[in-house]
Amino acid sequence: MIDCCFKRWDFEELDLILKLMEKESVTLNLDSYKVLINGFTSYGKPEEAERLVSSMYDKKLRVETYLYNFIMNGYCRFGLVEKMYELHSKMSSRGVTPNKDTYWVLMNGLCKVGKVCEAMSLLNELRVNEFEIDGAMYITLEAVAEMSREGFLRDATICENLANALFEVHERGTNDASSPHGFTIDLIHRRSNASSSRVSNTQAGSPYADTVFDTYEYLMKLQIGTPPFEIEAALDTGSELIWTQCLPCVHCYDQKAPIFDPSKSSTFKEKRCNTHDHSCSYEIVYADKSYTQGTLATETVTIHSTSGEPFVMPETIIGCGGNNSGFRPSYSGIVGLTRGSLSLISQMGGAYPGFISYCFAGKGTSKINFGANAIVAGDGVVSTSMFVMTAKPGFYYLNLDAVSVGNTRIETQGTPFHSLKGNIVIDSGTPLTYFPVSYCNRVRKAVKRVVTANRVADPSRNDMLCYYSNTIEIFPVITMHFSGGADLVLDKYNMYMELNRGGVFCLAIISSPPHGFTIDLIHRRSNASSSRLSNTQLGSSPYADTVFDNSVYLMKLQLGTPPFEIEAVIDTGSEITWTQCLPCVHCYDQNAPIFDPSKSSTFKEKRCHDHSCPYEVDYFDKTYTKGTLATETVTIHSTSGEPFVMAETIIGCGRNNSWIRPSFGGFVGLNWGPLSLITQMGGEYPGLMSYCFAGNGTSKINFGTNAIVGGGGVVSTTMFVTTAKPGFYYLNLDAVSVGDTRIETLGTPFHALEGNIVIDSGTTLTYFPESYCNLVRQAVEHVVPAVPAADPTGNDLLCYYSNTIEIFPVITMHFSGGADLVLDKYNMYMESYSGGLFCLAIMSSSPHGFTIDLIHRRSNAYSSQVSDTQLGSPYANTVFDSSMYLMKLQVGTPPYEIEAVLDTGSELIWTQCLPCLHCYDQTAPIFDPSKSSTFKEKRCDTHDHSCPYEIVYNDKSYTKGTLATETVTIHSTSGEPFVMAETIIGCGRNNSVFSPSFSGIVGLNWGSLSLITQMGGAYPGLISYCFAGKGTSKINFGANAIVAGDGVVSTTMFVTTAKPGFYYLNLDAVSVGDTRIETLGTPFHALEGNIVIDSGSTYTYLPGSFCNLVREAVEYVVPAVRAADPMDNDMLCYYSDTIDIFPVITMHFSGGADLVLDKYNTYMESYSGGLFCLAIICNNPPQEAIFGNRAQNNFLVGYDSSSLLVSFSPTECSALWN
Predict the structure, then answer these.
(1) pTM of the full predicted structure?
(2) 903 given a catalytic annotation
(3) Name one GO biological process term (predicted).
């Protein structure tokens, strides 16, 4: 495990392993120390390795010479010669005898810094101690001799002595004469019509793209196997593994040359790993989406140098690719040349300590050099530091400080591209140079300013900057300024590519393709479970204290200039990134300091119509944030140490926030809405994100190409977009298996084809609809042998007493497309802090919701559909625009569509049915139950066992029939059907005095047979509707029905024992303009409900005595001439060409809910015009007061039976969902 951490450069994981060993009292032994010293030295931490040596002495462990040699060589590699010598002195003082490798390391280090005299003294010491001088020393001395011959070492005497020593060594011979000191290989220069990047998928590279330019790939010949089999493989400093296609091939690309057959090689040997078949599989996905999959093996690799001497590498680890795609037929594989442990140069061993150089010719011979041959020295040489990125170890990073275009120098400093520890990869496999978009655009602009030729579209479609020109001379010289003063003045041939047919030149610098970075997350445990899904979605449980380990994952980011650090929850269930801001109207008690925008020079409030841009997010657990939108600089520090800077990012500045935990400073919205973090990252990070949440240890989130998930064992499923809830990540769950029992969603209301479950990073538990959740729970109960226990959190989790998790069944989630997730038991069962109790981490969904379009039907009659327990107005012809709101639903199997009136004033869902004794003249066909396979008559204790019903509405219309159970299907605006099996409906066979335009009524009061009651626990009495006078009207159920935000007023609902189920409100007063008319002191006054709110009545009805007071107040201020009510209903009417002369009417409901009604709500104009009547009608006891649907127009009206509240939000209903 320690070795694996080093290979992955995962020092955080290494630290965790060492701490775990310490916790478990596992002592480091000699082997452990060897691996640690080897690892720290190989990966650039020789000081840490030296500290381990001291620790070994403390533990009385023997320290071998080779460990000292290894650490000294580490210091040597980084030019730390003084530290190398200090360790050599410690070695001697501790009585450890040096061997010849010790001398080689010391000589190598001294020669690297030009201390030839000291190296010569070591050579004499070697002779005195009669050590044999091997090939490694020969390489070192020959390299220095070459330097002296070229004039790089000024001391002629030293050079002469060194040369003599070298000749003397050569005459005496070595034990390793077969090892070349350095060698060179001719490369094959292949031109192609495609540009590509072979940098592997942790890096940015260009995708394949056809081009009309002469681009290049450089291949080297090598032989694998015994007898040797020749292949030509692409040279790639951007990847690690040496691989070739192998027979038998599951899926190989069309390679021109024969494919290597391992069965014909006597030295081929599969690597063995701890897998089910003991093979060692590998997978590499390159940035251009090409990939190779296969198994690792050891094989003899032979390279023929230009000198004719073969360099033989027995037991070299190679990849044998049996599934490869996206590569060119001209080569057989790739030779990885990074500094990773499996690359060619790493496997060459100590004789070739990381020395390579190459020289690519546009025409003619290209070469690559290894070992001493790879030394680059002489006049004109410039050097720059290579950097190691912990996120991308092994790759060659340089630091680009600036680019000059002619005399114009463009600094990286002040741009997101700027870095001190590496910002650009040098890569042999990519023809073009890539810069980040913003910096690339600055370079392009500088070129445009000086080039006088005409622009032309890029014929390769890669958005290159191209010009018509017959000569390259018109283009400016480009200089790359690398750190340490390494200025590369590039030939124009390097920077401008000519079209094959001539006449067009293009700049060989383009914008980087998508790239990526990774961030460490903060794992915060708490004793509260919550859902952060915003209120347009299915949420989970509200805050509830629990004795389980629930988790929140936070990321650090910085806001403003200078940067101000916050820790914010990552949330795929919401969109906006927000933090609390000073000054704060109402902020929750945050542990960390609150962001003060006044101290940031880059903060800028967004402006909407010359005003601030307010926002409000209401989460489903009743937490909320309110504030204003602003643009601000957001800085994110990745694990590589590179900051990712997002200028002018839209954030929320929350100044009224409630119910949020003090441990975090806001939220990072990660859905795919336009304001989410990943959307605002822009085209360089096109919606690619992945995260890995650890129960213990390090958790991370990845963006861009770092987010690619590939390799063995990966399963994928489709994400779906719902129109009602765009931006959120819906998946399709087909089934759940509990052990061997598979529970399909098909045949349940949970079933869907285009998304039925949200994947959410902000919710701890998994939630299923109640009926489906019960099926899963029953399957668990069936196999668990333990004693059930009550859920200590009060959330109705399925819990058992047990001291072990092993008794519980494995649960598998079957997502669409064959993505089967076999979940660890830790994922599905939560243990209490005190132990001995486990609970299933799946529970019934909190309320969720959907929305339905309504049909607005106008008629020349007004009515009340309040049933006969209430007194409404009778039908009467009218010359006014009266309204009914109908919803479409389907009954039966196959589904049969009906349109039924929406009625909060009645209970039963009913429709006319065949055969019909006496049905009214319905326009649409009548439902025939005999044609439905799911229709079933209810059975009651009557003479014929039927269950008859009868409803007489107060307008004398009635319906009589029998009760039955039937499947009811409602299609929501999202396209998702809501299916209610075995719903009790009325089958009306004797119905009279209804409008022919509808087929029945949908009862929406809170009686036991109403639609919302029969929806069950998933939709607990939550409905809202928005009636538009014109345009779209809608009704919402469940979570979609929540009414919240600025301008909302709420009043209490009351239950009366005489008429249970109906929605009573308490009207305290009515204002006509500035005149307030109290109910107090009148018979209308009540404390527990005096008016019914009804969706099925057009007009508002008030008791006669109080109604007359309201009418008198209207009469007092209206200057127009009274007119007789053309409907003969004693309505208060006036002749007028405008509604503006009439006073505003306000309804004052209890609890301070004042509804200022639009004049359209309270005054109705005749069809012919010129006549307006007050839409409030006086009635007489015992008739009830009714608040009708005309007064409710353009209010979002919400009913919450659990909290006994009706809420009103002024809303332009026809525009609300546009």
Answers:
(1) 0.45
(2) yes
(3) proteolysis
